[in-house]
Design goal:
The chain is an alpha+beta fold. The chain has eleven helices and 19 strands. Residues 134-455 form the PPM-type phosphatase domain.
Length: 468
Amino acid sequence: MQREIIKDPSGEIKVSFGYQCDTKNDNSWDIPNRVDIPSPGKLRRANSSFSCLSGAALSANATLANTNMCNGIIGAEILPTLDSPNSFRRVPSSPSLGKMEFLSSSLQSSMSNMSISPSSPNETLDNDSFSSSFLNAEEVQMAGGAAGEDRVQAVCSEENGWLFCAIYDGFNGRDAADFLAGTLYETVVFHLNLLDWDLQQESSGSSFKQCVLNSLHLALCQAENEFLHMVEQEMEDRPDLVSIGSCVLLVLLHRKDLYLLNVGDSRAVLASYDEGGDMNRTARLQAIQLTDSHTVDNAVERTRLINDHLDDPSTIVAGKVKGKLKVTRAFGVGYLKKKDMNDALMGILRVRNLISPPYVSTEPSLVVHEVSNSDHFVILGSDGLFDFFSNNEVVKLVNSYISRNPSGDPAKFLVEQLAARAAESAGFSMEELMSIPAGRRRKYHDDVTVIVIILGTNKRTSKASTFL
């Protein structure tokens, strides 16, 4: 595990995490322009679908204070040990490992008094399922972090060769992103453990893959129900909670299958060589966007939203949903989904003429991509990254960087390049931009979270399927 903490001139801490497998004795990875340099810190693995994971984040916003939500559970204390993505933590395996033990001890303590809706799996969880199923806890390592209202999470299993990554891009506050970072992974684990993963060994058809995607969808729906239930309990004291939400980008990589769930405008971009290319230095690297962008700027989303609310001529106002939100799908943001939550707001904060809610959907885009020998790496990023770079640009930057620095941190490099471009766009030097305190830099760049997964696979066919 690589760890690096850099302090910029303003005193703000920028943190990155990296994870690299030891590929020296594994011939299944065939990555062009990459040289694997043995390192004592690399972790050995017999079989895997990725050879390097790196993540970095940059805060633009002053994180909004969270007070007294569920007795302070969803607030500043929820992620004390996961407050920056600078390390993986090993979680011990146990036949009696309970659901809550997947989280840090401090997070477990914080959540022990959490008020949840009856839909929680706590009441029906079979603890033994964790030790006998695909997503068991043995050799699991975790990382998590924060940048303003963004949250990032990565969990991997050395033994079983799977990787879970998620970016939660919060808005109007950090409560929703904090809730996701504290609960969604364990909810996903619960639903995936209900599947018979042995079936995947017997069949390569789409039915099992659809079941995995359905499980991710169910986990998100459960998290949404629980979060809005909590908001309803607290909105009398904290009416601002009804406007707080988050975009969600979730990735599960297992063997040759890359599962993606997306709600909002975060993005997953695959770097893949031309079909039929020999993957040598002359092969052309393409940028393939694997996720949809759920914003009013997307003509498909805009048309869908208008058609869903034909009785409301003010569905889109000034380029935003009900004049409030640019994303058309998001977690939380209850006031655009439920009338009683909208009524909790006062004055100009309340939505006028909430005729036919919900106006914002939690229905995700779901995709499974079969990783091929031509696929090189995947870039996950919150929309702050793509405010300054196109898909092609981020692919070219990462490819150039890892060609020159095979054991470096491409995610941190992308964040540094973004800061440089933001400074140039504002007419500042890099030093001048970074000297502006976080919170005041929001006018120059958004919170930015980046994860780069360098793939390592062989003899696989490339195919992307979308399930709606």
